[in-house]
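Progress narrative, Year 2. Work on VWFA domain-containing protein from Streptomyces osmaniensis advanced from sequence curation to structure prediction during this period.
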Amino acid sequence: MRRAAASVLGGTAVFVSLLAPAGQDPVPAADSTPAFPAVNYAVAVDESASLAPEDMRAEKAAAKRIALGDVSSSSQVTVFGFAAAEKAGQRVVDPVCPRTTLDAAGREEVGRCVDELRGRKKSEGTGTDLPTAIRQGVDDLTDGSDASVPRVLFLLTDGKMDVEDSFKYGDPAHRAAEGERQLKAALKEAAAQNVQIWPLGFGSDPDKKQLDQIAAGGYQKGCVELPSASPRAHKVDGAKDVGGTLERIFAAAHCLRHEEGPSKRPPATLEIGISPLATVGSIVVDKGDPEVKITYIDPAGDKIPTTSGRYKGSRFELAGGTGTVEALKIVDPLPGTWKVKAEAPEGHRSLPVAVSVLWQGELRGAITMDPPSPQAGEKVTVTMRLQTREGYEIKDPRDYEGLRVRSELTGDGFSALALDLADNGKGPDPDASDGSFTGTVTIPDDADGALTVSATLTASGLSADTRSETGEVAPGELPVKAPLELPAGSTHPGGTVTGTLDVSNTTDAPHTLRLSVADVKDGLLSVEPKQITLKPGEQGTREVTVRVSPKSAFGDRLGDGLDLSGTFTVVDTTDDDRTLERAPVSVRVTPEPGIWDKYWWAFVAGAVVLALAVAAVVALLGLRKRRRNPSGLILQLVSADGTVVNEHRAGHGNNKQWYEFAVAEAHRSPRIEKRAHGPYAVRRSREGGAVVRKDGSRVPLPTNGQVQLTDTLSLALGGIPGQGPRPTQGAFAGGPDPRPSAPGGGAYDDFL
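Result:
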């Protein structure tokens, strides 16, 4: 198994394979720190009279964007303005920003010096000398610079060459022709010096033909061999189109990915996504007004410090915070949806705030050949699975848009065979757009000895990666086999997924097998046991366990869950380290559930029980209230001789269900009157009859009894209105009440 490191030299992707020593497991996919190559570039800004003031402002904004958008702190830039020298003492070029390294301080400095660009006055020369501008850019990019670093010239102009008043081009009648001749010579020199030229057309009517000629005349090889990386001319439609247009061009010229986000007036919160493949990027915010203040919030909901430094495993640099455009550069950004919060004081909210992201990443692959030791004439299946550099699966097609996969089979005894690997869900590929590219190839009949299957991934914005797997043609049926059966599983950090090896040893000697998981960051996945020994003639199954690392290994990358992938490898150490099995392993890792996720059923059951209990209590209280409610009781005043002198129907009582009343005109015309806080009160008893409250005591009132209220009057309960009780003596028909009562309660407080 070999792994590959990719670098960019002279604008061309170069692949260097690193071969693992024989007998050792393949090197993990993410065992090195990613390097992001620098780019040297120059920005030539047209200051001629053919451009309006608003076009000049758009050019300056574009120049700032170039400096802020680069992802490498080692990149360098020069910026100069140009027009034409039409009289003695005039000059074509106005140097404004000398060669500056784009670290945090350098980005701020370029943002300031770009403001020195300005439209030329008539006395300064207002023509457009394109040949001289290109020569100046080539000179800035080649003088004392490393030839292995890519060279890019951005030419910001309307494309209309005007040298008819430039005395350096000879006789006035032939100046236009001479200008064209020198332009071709300047472009030829740019191509010879490996300088790409990306023209940006400004103004109401840029010369598209001229701009296309300039783009095609420089160096044509891009940072990768993809059409998107070849120089092309682009028209900028006004100042509002500068950001998006420039960033798309900038991304293509530097092999970056560009994602354009929303645009809103402040106060507003804008969202922009960063791919899990991104290893470095810049969130670029066009504020429109320098008074707008920006806050960056990562996918975990945390505010990012605006000072340069490290935070939560990422490194940050903020540049341009005091201007109209600022950028937050992030190394190892947390993938997911970022929020950009824009706030502004009153009077500074009329212009929209736009957000976009430029990023560069590493796309890794893990390749398998099934079976790893095939026989001549046997068909094998080759699969290249896409991963991040940590070993996380990539399944969103947008993350690898424009990907090119080249694969071939080489070996002893036959010529190289090209393989067609596809992710279209057809033929040997089981699922479309799942990040696994699959194809088949038949081992030639004359194959004898070593086999190597390799695949190279190339995509704009992503470091290229080459993977290969070595095998050996089997002379016949292998005497020892150990295919893996590992069901797709989901677990939490620290959890396990269990599978089986269907082992077979047809020899008369023991064989020791070594088990491992490769193509994943160290420690994220491991296998138990690491070694098993098969007895002579053994056939059966052996249980194996794939263990996921603890939560600390994932940091903030786990989010709502991720797919972790690797390659399960079985090597027969007894048979010269012959590879018996290389099978893809995919484990869905989700966060450990919280208390609610673990015990939701108990919470729900408890809530149901509680609700039922509350309902029962409410029903009981309601029943008790209904039982106590005095409404409808017929209250009768009975004289000493047993005559009913007044009858009164009770209504609803107060909150405690007591119907309060008083006896009016007790000695002349006695009657019961409802009276709040009266001296007497009555309510029903759950045992039948009623309870009377008087003088702080509670006295039972049976349906056939009486309660003394005054010296001459008692209270009784009537049945049908107008029907009095049977005449009795005392509180009860049988005599005085023998049961005691106490102030404030007593034996009958259970009614309450």
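Residues 660 and 726 are 25 Å apart (CA to CA). The longest strand covers residues 578-589.
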